[in-house]
Amino acid sequence: MYPSKPGLLIGFHGCEESVRDAIVTGQRSMMKSENEHDWLGKGYYFWENNPHRALDFARNPPGKKHFKKPSVLGAVLDLQNCLDLLDTSYLRLVKMAYQNLEFSAASSGKELPVNKTVKGSKDRLIRNLDCAVIENLHSIQEGLKGSRPFDSVRGVFVEGNELYPGAGFHEKNHIQICIRNPNCIKGFFIPREEVNWP
Q1: Which helix or strand (DSSP H or E) is residue 162 part of?
Q2: Counting CB atoms within 10 angstroms of each CB, which of 38, 68, 70, 127 has the fewest?
Q3: Residue 87 to residue 174: CA distance in whole angstroms
Q4: pTM for this predicted structure
């Protein structure tokens, strides 16, 4: 009764300025991420209410990618039927999807994917296992008669260095959203700077 996410959210995506401008003006569509290491599976990625984290990503993209003019794309999102990884009932589904994937791998003699760290970071930024588990859950969900597929996925991530010794807070903690159903994206905008008021 309570898991639905009523209302709209604001999401931010780090990208090249020319790409942002082309998406906002409708000259091109946003590209779906379909990497095997995507944290929340395949879809369109946003930081929830966090333009600073999106800009940090654009300034320091992973791998060999480099943006000449790092920028932030804003979006108005409606999560609709959301696989919310902050909700206990959905975490149980993810655990079940892992167990199903583990059983399938053992039955076929295959190894499970692994989450990995990258050079210069202690965080597991390459999430092959998590991506496989989330995608397996989507496959299970879509195979159930009368079951509605998830439109989006939402998760919290602890990332970066501790804010201070012994802290439970880290420099790059964030909530990430993966939109699977492009109809959940209600519009794009260029974020504006805050003005002094009054």
Answers
A1: none
A2: 68
A3: 16
A4: 0.92
* CB neighbour burial string for 71-85, b if at least 16 within 10 angstroms, e if fewer: bbbbbebbbbbbbbb
pLDDT tens-digit profile of 45-72?
999 999 999 999 999 887 778 999 999 9
Bridging pattern class, strands 174-179 and 185-189: unpaired
Q: Is residue 37 a part of any domain in this protein?
A: yes
CA–CA gap between residue 52 and residue 18 (Å, rounded): 19
Helix %, strand %, coil % of the chain (to 5): 30, 25, 45
pLDDT digits (tens, 9 = 90+) for 155-172: 999 998 999 999 999 999
Tally the domains of the chain.
1
**Per residue in 88-109, pLDDT tens?**
999 999 999 999 999 999 999 9
Is 182 domain-assigned?
yes
- Joined tokens for residue 139: 């496959």
User: Domain span at residue 75?
Assistant: 10-162+170-189
